[in-house]
Design goal:
By secondary structure, the chain is an alpha/beta fold. The protein has two domains: about 5-205, Spore Coat Polysaccharide Biosynthesis Protein SpsA, Chain A (Alpha-Beta Complex); about 210-285. The protein is about 40% helix and about 20% strand. It is built from nine helices and nine strands. Strand 2, helix 2 and strand 3 (about 60) form a beta-alpha-beta unit. Helix 7 packs across helix 9 (about 265-285). The protein is globular, with a radius of gyration of 20 Å.
């Protein structure tokens, strides 16, 4: 027996290529949320127009300026009053029983935050395949109680015992892009709430990268991860050398595992990574 006191929110910024299949997959769930809320983070593409096609099926909140993912997540949590709140990123397409599986787990196992397994959809693209190997957003083929964190791209939260005390960390500029989900999960674990990763609740990542967009994605991941600590020429050289070593290590692994299609991608990502690193550091006046 499912408790249907559940809503779902989708934060979106310039999601014109993915928001439609994302919303359609939510509307087609075997267990349907009572409310679907989209947080439009001041998109400048056709996102708003596409959202209007779903009028009557979704609610939309429009940020006055681009405020970032953590702000949008916190805004959704403040506005949604259901016990269960599902989070789905705008570039994610859910399998039909995704919500049903997560609701079942969260109630049967007394879990506070549960996430599903996300695959890359366009795997024939070498850049997406690289991302599926090196930047995957799942914990593998087995269920996992209390993983390090639950990915923000697809999850379900039970708010029953939270009393509004928890929110996604948004205290620094770099948390607008990455890692707000890691700190949210860590706060829950620190307060003895349980997390769960379900390998059965499947969804697909709809991003379709090229060399430059992939390198930019990877650069953001690595750079936001250290909080843009103060840089100098020594750190620039050190970071570039680290990435070079990593690239050669990956390439050797790819050869041994016959993943030859990734070899070119490895070095393109490295080349653009160094360029982005240099550009950022020069723009911020290296010491």
């Amino acid at each position: 027996m499912f408790d249907l006191d559940v809503s779902c929110y989708v934060p979106v910024y310039n999601g014109e290529t993915t928001i439609k299949p994302c919303l359609e997959s939510i509307l087609n769930q075997s267990v349907k949320p009572n409310k679907i809320l989209v947080i439009n983070d001041k998109s400048t593409d056709n996102t708003e127009k596409i959202l209007s096609e779903f009028s009557g099926s979704i609610d939309v909140l429009n940020n006055d300026i681009n405020r970032g993912i953590a702000y949008s997540r916190n805004l959704a949590l403040k506005n949604l009053k259901t016990r269960f709140i599902a989070s789905v990123d705008a570039d994610v397409e859910l399998s039909k029983d995704w919500l049903k599986i997560l609701i079942n787990i969260i109630q049967e196992k007394k879990i506070t935050l549960v996430g599903g397994k996300m695959y890359e959809k366009f795997i024939e693209n070498n850049y997406n395949y690289w991302r599926s190997v090196r930047l995957k957003q799942n914990w593998g083929e087995d269920d996992n109680l209390n993983p390090k964190f639950i990915f923000g791209c697809n999850n379900l939260l039970d708010t029953k015992f939270l009393n509004g005390k928890f929110q996604y960390r948004n205290d620094k500029e770099y948390f607008k892009t990455n890692f707000e989900d890691i700190f949210f999960s860590k706060d829950l674990l620190k307060n003895n709430f349980k997390l769960f990763y379900s390998s059965q609740a499947l969804c697909l990542h709809l991003q379709n990268d090229n060399a430059k967009t992939l390198a930019n994605r990877y650069w953001r991941y690595m750079s936001y991860g250290d909080g843009f600590k103060k840089r100098n020429f020594y750190k620039l050289f050190k970071n570039s050398l680290r990435e070079m070593k990593k690239t050669f290590k990956w390439s050797l692994e790819d050869i041994l595992k016959s993943r030859f299609r990734l070899l070119k991608v490895n070095f393109l990502v490295l080349m653009y990574f160094i360029q982005l690193n240099l550009k950022f550091n020069l723009n911020n006046k290296l010491d």
